[in-house]
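#onboarding

Welcome to the new folks! Below is a worked example of what a typical request in this channel looks like: someone posts a single protein sequence, and someone else replies with the predicted structure as tokens. Don't worry about understanding the tokens yet, we'll cover that in week two.

Example request:
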Amino acid sequence: MDHAFAYEQSQNTLRQRNLLGLACLALFGTCIALTVVATNPDREVILQPVVAKQMSISSGGVSRDYLEAVTRDAALLTLNRSPETLQYWMDAILAITAPEARGGLKAKLAAIVAEQQGSQVTQFLTIDWIQVDPGTLTSEIGGVLHTVVASRDVRREQRTFRFKWKYEGLSLKLLGFGVVLKKDEAP
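Example response:
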């Protein structure tokens, strides 16, 4: 009787060992599959159809069309402002800015807000052209910068602005922007 009981116990132990071994193999296979998926650099996000062309961004980089669309939208956001919308204007620019550039940019934007708060000065850009370089993540946009006081268009200047971007993961963030000065213009 003792032999039969010992044999049954050893068979139960062997069954449990075999099941545990199969579970370990299944978990090991799952870990390998998850590692392969996690290290695959070809992630892609399909963007909503709010632009004329179909666009996507991937972990491999930013497409020319996407960078152009983002530059256009950022230029309209950053270069169009009125006294009534200054707080929204500053908050929206900071929302698209990379964390490491946010502090310096916030100080400059706050100075503009303080200067123009309560004034009647409005500024807007009419875009003539956009050039983008996805390799260096820079873009330039040119057009006429209008300055309006009350309801009078007091100044129209042909200007070029440069935007510098940072791309991490699937996120494109603004590092900085500013006017491109000609050689004969003083900074």
